[in-house]
Amino acid sequence: MLFNSIEFAIFLPISFLVFWFLLPRKSVNYQNLFILSISYLFYGWWDYRFLSLIIISSSADFFIGKAISNNSKSTQRKLLLFLSILINLGLLGFFKYYNFFVDSFIDLSNSLGLHAHPRTLNIILPVGISFYTFQTLSYTIDIYRKRFKPTNNWIAFFAFVSFFPQLVAGPIERASNLLPQFYKITKFDYKVAISGMRIILWGLFKKIIIADTCASIVDVIFEHYTGFNGSALLLGAFFFAFQIYGDFSGYSDIAIGTAKLFGFNLNINFNLPYFSRNIGEFWHRWHISLSTWFKDYVYFPLGGSKVPKLKQVRNILITFTVSGLWHGANWTFVAWGFLNGLYYFPLIFFKKNKNLTSVIAENSILPSIKELFQLFLTFSLTLIAWIFFRSDSITDAFNYLRIIFSESLFQNPLPLLRGKGITDSLIDGSIAIIILLIFEWVNRKKDFPFYLDKLPKIIRWIIYWLIAFFMLFYFGEEKTFIYFQF
Question: Residues with Cβ < 8 Å from 398, sequence gap 6 or more?
């Protein structure tokens, strides 16, 4: 079930009304059973058969977590943890990477003059499997590390794993934050609910008006990139940067806002990433739940930054390369991750790899010349990496870049874009991006960029209704979220 679908527009208010007005409030188990039921309905609406995978993953880590906690022998604890990793990554590896590795092996064999016969399967990638397997896996790892005590309430645990707002595309919640919220009966808070609705509205704005509008430009340019000049391809990369940001952060906003409607708090997943001054700050602000997951469970176990510089480089490259592979079964994602790892080299060798925690232009209206240069450089590097992320193959990505960095970069892109019928989308997308950046810049010191509390009530409601009107105006075919493929 998509957040931007008619089905969800019916599902959410009905679930909300039943949860707060019809559900017995005497026992937390009633609450969690209801959350579990609507979460399974939400996920099963796509394909009910894959509910079995969530149940397997939830059951395995529920019992393995208890077994690890109850066992004092180091060897047996390690074996139990290995079993959890094997089950979770085994499911993820089979459904997501089986054909990828088989095809890569066949290509390698053929290049060496060997003739391997393909034995690929028609495997459907279950939506959200990358997210909920990481969520349950972190639960057992934290128990193994004695940082979290396992729960004895299977209903609460199953509801935690399958909580529908963030089930399909995150944020990837840690048990330490979300699971304890299922131990108590939630209480309705009008202000929290209103806040949740505002966040949902902003998330839908990002998805429908920004991401989907940019997609109509990006799809044409990347699909026919050989027929465009360098300036048009640069525009394609630029609009993809905002397509994926609007699409993914929009999903996270809707998830966070929806959770608030039911009295639950999810962690922020995006924090103005395109206002970053170096690549380290960017990854401190982009897909925060995944970045911290890889930092805690891959980068730190490798030694983190408490090792010599060459080993720091190794740790960064491994972490980002694995992160790239997590995003999809294509070498383009591996290259994207590896390239982001390379971007860290100057930060490591010049000892600038500490995350910037201050707000850009903290004491002024506009950024300084230095900050502007840092913003431009960081965004430019990110843009190059996004080209690998979006391209169908490594060859396409390099050819795309080759055309950008040719003399055609200085040619007028409009005639070619007009010929493909995307100039209207170009204008609409540009206006939407400007509105987004204005809101984010003005409210960069706030927890949430769509902050209107200081405006008169009548002005706030005019803005709300204008956004709603334009969403209905731009709403056409239901477009899936990009990260559903991951």
Answer: none
HSE value, Cβ hemisphere, 13 Å, CA-based, for 282:
21
User: How far, in Å, CA of 335 to CA of 356, rounded?
Assistant: 26
Give exposure, 217-242, as e/b (b: 16+ Cβ within 10 Å): bbebbbeebeebbbbbbbbbbbbbbb
Q: Is residue 143 a contact partner of residue 69, using CB atoms and an 8 Å limit? A: yes
Task: Give pLDDT tens digits along the chain (486 positions).
Answer: 677 788 888 999 999 999 999 888 888 999 999 999 999 999 888 778 889 889 999 999 999 999 999 988 889 999 999 999 999 988 888 777 776 666 665 665 566 665 655 555 566 667 788 888 999 999 999 999 999 899 999 999 999 999 999 988 779 999 999 999 999 999 999 999 998 999 999 999 999 889 999 999 999 999 999 999 999 999 999 999 999 999 999 999 999 999 999 999 999 999 999 999 999 999 999 999 999 999 999 999 999 888 888 899 999 999 999 999 888 878 899 999 999 999 999 888 887 766 666 788 888 888 999 999 999 999 999 999 999 999 999 999 999 999 999 999 999 999 888 888 888 889 989 999 999 999 899 888 887 777 777 778 888 888 888 888 877 776 656 566 665 565
Q: What is the pTM of this model?
A: 0.90
Residue 277: other Cβ atoms inside 10 A = 19
Tell me 300's DSSP state. Answer: T
Say if residues 271 and 292 touch (Cβ distance below 8 Å).
no
Whole-Å CA distances, 213 to 246, 262, 479, 486: 10, 31, 11, 22
Q: Which sign, positive or negative, has the C-alpha torsion 337, 340, 342, 344?
A: negative
Tell which residue, 3, 224, 283, 306, has the closest CA to residue 128: 3
Buried/exposed code over 333-357 (b: 16+ C-beta within 10 A; e: otherwise): bbbbbbbbbbbbbebbeeeebeebe
3-state secondary structure of 287: coil
Please report, as a single letter, which amino acid is at residue 79. Answer: L
Rounded Cα distance, 256 and 192, in Å? 11
The residues that are catalytic are 327
